[in-house]
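Mods, move this if it's the wrong board.
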Amino acid sequence: MIAPNPRLVLLRHGETAWSRSGQHTSRTDLPLTETGERQANAVAPALAALGLRDPLVISSPRLRALRTAELAGMRVERQWDDLVEWGYGDYEGLTTEQIHEVAPHWTVWTHPCPNGESTESVQGRADTVVHVAAAQLTERDVVLFGHGHFSRALIARWLDLPVRDGRRFAFSPASYTVLGFERGIRQVVTHNTQVAKP
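Not the wrong board. Structure tokens:
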């Protein structure tokens, strides 16, 4: 049985040099910028104010996510490869404008990434994460530290929407989203909450 008012909190890592420049970053393990560290520090009191119930904290193994969790005052209990960013393949490190030079109108939501991860693979990972997190909500809240596109896919799958509908949810660096329930129906409680100014 789900406990009263259980919450699943998604938190995107703080700014990196590539998130600032708009370069697609998946496997490249970049550190936070000074701004990113400041953003992550600013999240700590906001997360504390949520009054989370014995939170289970899980992070992507990427440095930028782990450092954000650390600075946000959360102790990571598990690093999980299923939380890594969408695999961009040949588009790793490129901006959308650069990709459009070879693939006009491309978005990660609507077009493939050559030698990258398919939408079906992303959905499979997202469904696994949602299933595992939901099972924990009977006992404790869950906090997931991860990345922009994959976290947006998680939001879509939490709501039983196709992965492509993740495009409808903005998710800024070091922002957080709280997912929960109303009368047993999964919902978005708060979304893209930003504590530090960009």
